[in-house]
Amino acid sequence: MPTDLVVVDAFTDRPFAGNPAAVCLLDRPAPERWMQQVADEMHLSETAFAVRRPDGDHDLRWFTPTVEVDLCGHATLATASVLGGGRFHTRSGVLTCTVDADGRVTMDFPADPPEPRPAPDGLLEAVGLGGDRVEAVLAGRTDLVVVTADAADVRGLDPDQTRLAAVDCRGVIVTAAGDLPGVDCVSRFFAVRSGIAEDPVTGSAHCTLAPYWAARTGRTRLVGVQASPRGGTVAMRLEGDRVLLAGHARRVAEVRLLVDPD
After folding, report:
1. Average pLDDT over residues 92-106
2. pLDDT category of residue 262 using cuts at 50, 70 and 90
Protein backbone atom coordinates (compact mmCIF):
# COMPACT_ATOMS: atom_id res chain seq x y z
CA MET A 1 0.00 0.00 0.00
CA PRO A 2 1.23 3.59 -0.54
CA THR A 3 3.45 5.26 2.03
CA ASP A 4 3.07 9.00 2.64
CA LEU A 5 5.92 11.39 3.40
CA VAL A 6 5.79 15.04 4.45
CA VAL A 7 8.50 17.48 3.38
CA VAL A 8 9.19 20.07 6.07
CA ASP A 9 11.48 23.09 5.99
CA ALA A 10 13.16 23.14 9.42
CA PHE A 11 14.69 26.00 11.40
CA THR A 12 12.68 28.59 9.52
CA ASP A 13 9.26 30.23 9.72
CA ARG A 14 8.86 30.60 5.96
CA PRO A 15 8.77 28.11 3.09
CA PHE A 16 11.77 27.45 0.84
CA ALA A 17 14.27 28.42 3.52
CA GLY A 18 15.92 26.52 6.36
CA ASN A 19 16.71 22.85 5.84
CA PRO A 20 14.20 20.56 4.11
CA ALA A 21 13.65 17.06 5.50
CA ALA A 22 11.29 14.30 4.48
CA VAL A 23 9.34 12.65 7.30
CA CYS A 24 8.07 9.11 6.84
CA LEU A 25 5.70 7.76 9.52
CA LEU A 26 5.58 3.95 9.52
CA ASP A 27 3.33 1.52 11.36
CA ARG A 28 6.11 -1.08 11.53
CA PRO A 29 9.88 -1.18 11.00
CA ALA A 30 11.02 -1.12 7.39
CA PRO A 31 14.06 -2.81 5.83
CA GLU A 32 17.19 -0.68 6.10
CA ARG A 33 17.92 -0.99 2.38
CA TRP A 34 14.42 0.31 1.54
CA MET A 35 14.86 3.31 3.83
CA GLN A 36 18.22 4.12 2.25
CA GLN A 37 16.68 3.88 -1.21
CA VAL A 38 13.83 6.18 -0.20
CA ALA A 39 16.32 8.72 1.16
CA ASP A 40 18.26 8.56 -2.08
CA GLU A 41 15.03 9.02 -4.05
CA MET A 42 14.00 12.04 -1.97
CA HIS A 43 17.53 13.44 -2.37
CA LEU A 44 17.27 15.78 0.62
CA SER A 45 20.03 16.08 3.18
CA GLU A 46 17.98 13.85 5.53
CA THR A 47 14.91 11.63 5.44
CA ALA A 48 13.51 10.61 8.85
CA PHE A 49 11.69 7.34 9.50
CA ALA A 50 9.56 7.14 12.64
CA VAL A 51 7.86 3.99 13.93
CA ARG A 52 5.34 4.26 16.77
CA ARG A 53 6.11 2.10 19.82
CA PRO A 54 3.49 0.45 22.07
CA ASP A 55 4.21 3.00 24.81
CA GLY A 56 3.43 5.93 22.48
CA ASP A 57 7.07 6.90 21.89
CA HIS A 58 8.68 6.52 18.46
CA ASP A 59 11.79 4.83 17.13
CA LEU A 60 13.51 7.34 14.87
CA ARG A 61 16.21 6.85 12.24
CA TRP A 62 17.78 9.31 9.80
CA PHE A 63 19.30 8.71 6.36
CA THR A 64 21.16 11.01 4.00
CA PRO A 65 21.07 10.01 0.32
CA THR A 66 24.11 7.79 0.98
CA VAL A 67 24.36 6.80 4.68
CA GLU A 68 22.49 6.43 7.96
CA VAL A 69 23.58 8.98 10.59
CA ASP A 70 23.70 8.85 14.38
CA LEU A 71 22.14 12.25 15.07
CA CYS A 72 20.19 14.77 13.02
CA GLY A 73 18.63 17.93 14.38
CA HIS A 74 16.62 19.35 11.51
CA ALA A 75 14.95 16.05 10.60
CA THR A 76 14.07 15.50 14.27
CA LEU A 77 12.57 18.99 14.40
CA ALA A 78 10.63 18.21 11.22
CA THR A 79 9.35 14.94 12.66
CA ALA A 80 8.34 16.58 15.95
CA SER A 81 6.48 19.32 14.07
CA VAL A 82 4.48 16.69 12.17
CA LEU A 83 3.72 14.64 15.31
CA GLY A 84 3.22 17.56 17.70
CA GLY A 85 6.27 16.67 19.81
CA GLY A 86 7.21 13.39 21.43
CA ARG A 87 9.97 11.12 22.69
CA PHE A 88 12.23 9.52 20.12
CA HIS A 89 14.48 6.51 20.64
CA THR A 90 17.55 6.91 18.46
CA ARG A 91 21.17 5.89 18.02
CA SER A 92 22.03 8.90 20.21
CA GLY A 93 19.68 7.97 23.05
CA VAL A 94 16.22 9.27 23.88
CA LEU A 95 15.48 12.72 22.45
CA THR A 96 12.51 14.65 23.83
CA CYS A 97 10.77 17.32 21.75
CA THR A 98 8.03 19.78 22.68
CA VAL A 99 6.03 22.16 20.50
CA ASP A 100 4.98 25.62 21.72
CA ALA A 101 1.66 27.28 20.95
CA ASP A 102 3.31 29.27 18.16
CA GLY A 103 4.69 26.10 16.57
CA ARG A 104 8.28 26.44 17.74
CA VAL A 105 9.87 23.06 18.41
CA THR A 106 12.35 22.61 21.28
CA MET A 107 14.61 19.55 21.23
CA ASP A 108 16.65 18.13 24.11
CA PHE A 109 19.96 16.89 22.63
CA PRO A 110 23.32 15.73 24.01
CA ALA A 111 26.00 18.43 24.15
CA ASP A 112 29.25 17.78 22.30
CA PRO A 113 31.92 20.18 23.64
CA PRO A 114 34.81 20.39 21.18
CA GLU A 115 38.46 20.13 22.20
CA PRO A 116 41.43 21.90 20.56
CA ARG A 117 43.43 19.80 18.14
CA PRO A 118 45.99 20.40 15.39
CA ALA A 119 44.49 21.03 11.98
CA PRO A 120 44.61 17.82 9.91
CA ASP A 121 46.66 18.01 6.74
CA GLY A 122 44.71 19.74 4.00
CA LEU A 123 41.84 20.99 6.19
CA LEU A 124 42.50 24.72 5.91
CA GLU A 125 43.29 24.45 2.21
CA ALA A 126 40.01 22.55 1.74
CA VAL A 127 37.90 25.25 3.37
CA GLY A 128 39.91 27.99 1.67
CA LEU A 129 41.17 29.83 4.74
CA GLY A 130 44.73 30.92 5.37
CA GLY A 131 46.25 30.31 8.78
CA ASP A 132 46.15 34.06 9.54
CA ARG A 133 42.33 33.93 9.36
CA VAL A 134 41.93 30.95 11.70
CA GLU A 135 41.63 31.43 15.46
CA ALA A 136 41.26 27.76 16.44
CA VAL A 137 40.71 24.24 15.19
CA LEU A 138 38.73 21.89 17.43
CA ALA A 139 37.15 18.47 17.28
CA GLY A 140 33.89 17.09 18.63
CA ARG A 141 32.85 13.45 18.55
CA THR A 142 32.26 13.41 14.82
CA ASP A 143 32.94 16.89 13.41
CA LEU A 144 35.85 19.28 13.08
CA VAL A 145 35.38 22.96 13.95
CA VAL A 146 37.30 25.79 12.31
CA VAL A 147 36.92 29.11 14.12
CA THR A 148 37.67 32.08 11.90
CA ALA A 149 38.27 35.70 12.73
CA ASP A 150 35.32 37.28 10.97
CA ALA A 151 31.76 36.34 10.02
CA ALA A 152 32.49 37.60 6.51
CA ASP A 153 34.98 34.72 6.17
CA VAL A 154 32.18 32.26 6.95
CA ARG A 155 29.68 33.86 4.62
CA GLY A 156 32.17 34.02 1.75
CA LEU A 157 33.44 30.43 1.90
CA ASP A 158 33.81 28.50 -1.34
CA PRO A 159 35.45 25.25 -0.18
CA ASP A 160 37.13 22.65 -2.34
CA GLN A 161 34.72 19.71 -2.11
CA THR A 162 37.27 17.18 -3.38
CA ARG A 163 39.76 18.18 -0.70
CA LEU A 164 37.04 18.18 1.96
CA ALA A 165 36.20 14.60 1.07
CA ALA A 166 39.76 13.63 2.03
CA VAL A 167 39.42 15.03 5.57
CA ASP A 168 38.66 12.23 8.04
CA CYS A 169 35.50 13.40 9.85
CA ARG A 170 31.71 13.37 9.46
CA GLY A 171 31.65 17.07 8.66
CA VAL A 172 33.45 20.39 8.97
CA ILE A 173 31.87 23.31 10.85
CA VAL A 174 33.26 26.77 10.09
CA THR A 175 32.14 29.41 12.57
CA ALA A 176 32.71 32.98 13.74
CA ALA A 177 31.17 35.44 16.16
CA GLY A 178 27.84 36.88 15.02
CA ASP A 179 27.73 40.00 12.87
CA LEU A 180 24.05 40.92 13.31
CA PRO A 181 22.11 42.19 16.35
CA GLY A 182 20.91 39.31 18.51
CA VAL A 183 23.10 36.74 16.72
CA ASP A 184 25.89 35.17 18.78
CA CYS A 185 27.52 33.07 16.08
CA VAL A 186 27.37 32.27 12.40
CA SER A 187 28.36 28.97 10.85
CA ARG A 188 28.35 26.76 7.80
CA PHE A 189 28.54 22.98 7.66
CA PHE A 190 30.05 20.71 5.01
CA ALA A 191 29.57 16.93 5.13
CA VAL A 192 30.92 15.65 1.83
CA ARG A 193 31.60 12.17 3.22
CA SER A 194 27.92 11.84 4.11
CA GLY A 195 26.80 12.84 0.63
CA ILE A 196 26.04 16.47 1.58
CA ALA A 197 28.17 19.15 -0.05
CA GLU A 198 26.71 21.81 2.25
CA ASP A 199 23.93 21.27 4.76
CA PRO A 200 21.56 24.26 4.87
CA VAL A 201 20.96 24.22 8.67
CA THR A 202 22.46 21.58 10.95
CA GLY A 203 20.95 21.01 14.39
CA SER A 204 23.56 18.46 15.45
CA ALA A 205 26.38 20.90 14.65
CA HIS A 206 24.89 23.28 17.22
CA CYS A 207 25.38 20.60 19.88
CA THR A 208 29.05 21.45 19.39
CA LEU A 209 28.66 25.18 18.73
CA ALA A 210 26.55 25.79 21.86
CA PRO A 211 29.19 24.72 24.43
CA TYR A 212 31.98 26.40 22.46
CA TRP A 213 30.26 29.78 22.18
CA ALA A 214 28.85 29.54 25.71
CA ALA A 215 32.43 29.30 26.98
CA ARG A 216 33.51 32.19 24.73
CA THR A 217 30.63 34.52 25.62
CA GLY A 218 29.85 33.47 29.19
CA ARG A 219 26.18 32.99 28.25
CA THR A 220 24.17 29.78 28.13
CA ARG A 221 21.38 31.18 25.94
CA LEU A 222 22.56 31.79 22.41
CA VAL A 223 21.30 32.32 18.87
CA GLY A 224 23.12 30.88 15.87
CA VAL A 225 22.59 31.65 12.20
CA GLN A 226 23.69 29.10 9.64
CA ALA A 227 24.77 31.22 6.70
CA SER A 228 24.10 28.77 3.88
CA PRO A 229 22.30 30.03 0.75
CA ARG A 230 18.93 28.92 2.24
CA GLY A 231 19.84 30.06 5.76
CA GLY A 232 18.26 29.30 9.10
CA THR A 233 18.24 30.25 12.78
CA VAL A 234 18.85 27.96 15.76
CA ALA A 235 18.12 29.03 19.34
CA MET A 236 20.39 27.26 21.86
CA ARG A 237 20.34 26.83 25.61
CA LEU A 238 23.17 24.93 27.29
CA GLU A 239 22.09 22.94 30.35
CA GLY A 240 24.99 20.89 31.70
CA ASP A 241 25.67 18.03 29.31
CA ARG A 242 22.51 18.76 27.29
CA VAL A 243 21.62 21.40 24.72
CA LEU A 244 18.09 22.62 24.06
CA LEU A 245 17.80 23.51 20.37
CA ALA A 246 14.75 25.36 19.12
CA GLY A 247 13.33 26.53 15.82
CA HIS A 248 10.25 26.75 13.65
CA ALA A 249 9.19 24.56 10.76
CA ARG A 250 6.98 24.86 7.68
CA ARG A 251 5.33 22.01 5.80
CA VAL A 252 5.88 22.48 2.08
CA ALA A 253 4.86 19.23 0.36
CA GLU A 254 3.29 15.81 0.69
CA VAL A 255 4.66 12.84 -1.23
CA ARG A 256 2.94 9.50 -1.85
CA LEU A 257 5.44 6.70 -2.32
CA LEU A 258 4.01 3.81 -4.34
CA VAL A 259 6.76 1.29 -3.50
CA ASP A 260 5.85 -0.80 -0.43
CA PRO A 261 8.59 -1.48 2.18
CA ASP A 262 7.97 -5.21 1.83
Report:
1. 97
2. confident
Flag whether 105 is in a domain. Answer: no
Q: Which distant-in-sequence residues (6+ apart) come within 8 Å of 181 by Cβ?
A: none
Average pLDDT over residues 33-60: 97
- We report the CATH number of the domain holding residue 185 as 3.10.310.10
Question: Which of the residues 32, 41, 46, 125 is marked catalytic?
Answer: 46
What is the end-to-end Cα distance of the chain in Å, rounded?
A: 10
Report whether pLDDT(2) > 90. Answer: no
Catalytic annotation present for 46: yes
- The reply to whether 79 and 63 lie within a common domain is yes
Are residues 59 and 159 located together in one domain of the fold?
Answer: no
Q: Are residues 149 and 223 in the same domain?
A: yes
The reported pTM is 0.94
